[in-house]
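Most newcomers find our protein records easier to grasp once they have seen one. Nothing more is needed to start thinking about how sequence determines fold. Here is such a record, shown just as it appears in the course material:
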Amino acid sequence: MTSRPRRFDDVSAVRATDDGFTAQVDPGWCVGDKPNGGYLLAMLARAATQSAGHAHVVTASAHFLHSPDVGPVEIDTVVLRKGRSADHVRATMRQDGRPCVEAVMMVAQLEQGTTPYWDRGAPSRPSSERDDGVRVPGTTPTGMPVPIMDQVD
């Protein structure tokens, strides 16, 4: 099973509704038939930043309660605390009324041009050429589809 890669911005997009947000879980970001957790968290982050009006997630803590199926999901957000420079937002992803992922995020507006800071410095990245890596197929030897492998290098 090979799926054509789609832009992450497109497959993780959320749409505002009168009572929250909706999104579409894309089959290209699954292992077997279950979506990748980081992919789901990206959808929650988009809803959290939109609901609070800040562009950046500074911290996130998530609980994965039930894996949603490919298809539509709803996302509810609640601003738990509004601060001077950051807000705390709870975001819950549901499918057919069942909670799937619950996250609490601190969102803020980082200054443009600010560089990342790590106490111990940025980890060194080994140099590699694009062709040096091993390409893992999108299907396991037992035939289980892993379509997320067709999305990333």
